[in-house]
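Hi,

I'm pasting everything inline rather than attaching a file, because the server keeps stripping attachments. The sequence lines come first, and each chain or strand is labelled.
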Amino acid sequence: MVVQDVWGKLTPVFLRHVLTIAGKDLHAELRTKEAWNSSIAFSVVILVLFNFAFDPSSEQTREFSGGLLWLAYSFAGALVLNRSFARETQNDCLDALIASPVPSSALFLGKALANFALLLAIELVSLPVFGLFYNISWTARFGPLLVVLVLGAWALTVIGTLFSALTVNLRLRELMLPTLVYPMMLPALMVEMTMTTNLLAGGHLDDGMRFLIAFDIIVTLLSVAFVDTVLVG
Amino acid sequence: MREKIIFALAAVSGTILAWNMNTIFNKLPDELNQGAIYRIIYFHVPANILGMLGFGLALLFSIGFLMTKDLRYDALAVSVTEVSLVFAAIGLATGSIWARIIWGVWWVWDARLTSWLACWLIFAGYLLLRRAVDEANQRARFGAVVSILGTVNAYISYKSIEWWNTQHPQPVLSIRNGGGMAPGMEPPLYWNLLALMCLAAILIMVRMRQEIFAREIDTLRRLAHSH
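And the predicted assembly:
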């Protein structure tokens, strides 16, 4: 039912709405760079801080490199996602967006797409920094690694964007978003971390791929199905 | 009538538990490899089954609320989730005690333990979220969405011992895959499940009434403020 519902919505008009919203968000972000600057700085700071927790030059680092990388991504991601709907609260932009002819699902997907692009860019910028600081070669298996990064970023984006919409008008917004997003992301994060560690050690893509794809599809369908409930009621 | 049902359930639960305790601690022999500690399974498994069933039930009530917008479904969903969270916590704690004796550590980060803890955290987040929303309908709506998404993780946790190589033991009950317990050892587990289920039903009924009263008081307070 949900699949048909989503499929039925994929008309050219709907896609144009999605792209308009995504374009608007990216445009605003490119002008102000508020989420981008803070997230990049934040993820680099996290990577620097990690070196105090253990010896970065040791061989052991490889064994949890995937974990480190994804921790940095998900922390930085929370900053991007927090801003996603929060920036619409000024001048009641959110109410205007909801009242506009753009359906909630298009609004959601557009915002998710913009967040996804930002998050992926943050990932791609901090990956070389990570390789440089921790002496890990990430270029050898860049193709498969990119697949994991894309799938993981999409899962984080979709869950995060939905919860960003949900928490936007709450007290303690900044606190509630990570409290809800991280446990929800945990099964996917667990798989992403192991897969990334494997790939950085020269391994291949494994069964985790199927899990990630399934997770992505399920959370996307559920989020699109429920975003109207969250935003409008 | 409501009180009578609660007393009846309490009597059934108490009787079964007392009788079952006798069977578990006095009649059943120690397990061959694990010794006396295996008896914790009689609480660990039923508590976790109830936790998981509860999250599943909460999903149904949440869908019920979204379809009907009847706040009684929401009261049911939150009551069931709270009680399930307690049972899940008992499941995690008993598992941890068992792990300390058998594995030598309180906790390992395998897929089952991690995903179940994540599930616990999601539904704890569900309760936190409800406290942060003031308006009853909005609270119910947001709660329902988190509950529905959270159930995806409950299912992942349920399946995790099949999908990944976990340190957590594989299923032992015959209802799930063929049976790994000696014949006399399995029935007390189901009796305990029944007893704890009655207990859960009592807690849910009490909690549900609190929830409904709380909303009535809130409505009255708003009414008083508006005059």
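Chain A has one domain: 2-231.

If the labels don't parse on your end, tell me and I'll reformat.
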